[in-house]
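Take a sample.
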Amino acid sequence: MTENCKNVFAAIAGRANTGKSTLLNRLVGDKVAIVSDKPQTTRTLIHGILTKADTQYVFIDTPGLHRARNRLSEHMVKQARSGAAGADVILMTADCTKKISQADKSLTEGFSGGGDVILLLNKVDLIKDKTKLLQLIEEYAKLHDFAAIIPISAKTGENTDKILPAIEKYATAAENHYFPDDITTDQAEKVWLAEIIREKLLRSMYEEIPHGIAVEIESLSDSKTNTGKPILDISAVIICEKATHKGMIIGKQGANLKKIGTEARLEMEDYFISKVNMKIWVKVKEDWRNKEGFIAELGLAAE
């Protein structure tokens, strides 16, 4: 316990592909959320935790707000809204390389009457003409009375050092920090491992397939090699919606599945500093994104 403890909960909210998960990883200094160029990569609320001196910053990475097209999407939208509603301050991310759309306006209007919102105009590293950025800032300022507007680049880190000072004033005193000081996320280990595999899938598969993919860790255990060195044994299953998708995930003579497994295993070994033995299967569960029981079983249902 730290004397004079303070906690602040900041929800990172915004439309899909505005860099929320990249920003979360940048802020906590660790990879706690997977990242890909596919929309709706984040499916659940992810807590990223940074404890700095007396203050603990808890960042809530929310699924990108979008039009729900199935039961899973409905749960994602609910989680995005509930994560924002329960925070001390909202960090709204927007892509500054794009003009303000009607969807951006609707999202901004949704914050009216609520708590304070800090607008983070992300991807400034892609803007060469800064006069366009100034114009965009003026346009957003007319839409909402933001507590602050900060142009940033979650990818390069530009101006991200201005975020903590901006949310520090929302921290409240407490007897203890909400989470242990030495962790960067409260995600269960099995969930994090499954997400690493899904990230490799997202980065390697065609556009129409990733949304219908889920990954579940069936077993996780520690053992030792013949020489006595520690080894982590993982059994994972990739769930897809169609038999044709199963074939594409596996690839010719298993080449694609082997590539995905190797990339995931190497990242896990780097993280655990230990050898990883992983077995991956692929199974079909037709239309699973519309099956409430299965969504809940995978831990993707909104609470």
About this structure: The chain has a mean pLDDT of 89. The radius of gyration is 20 Å.
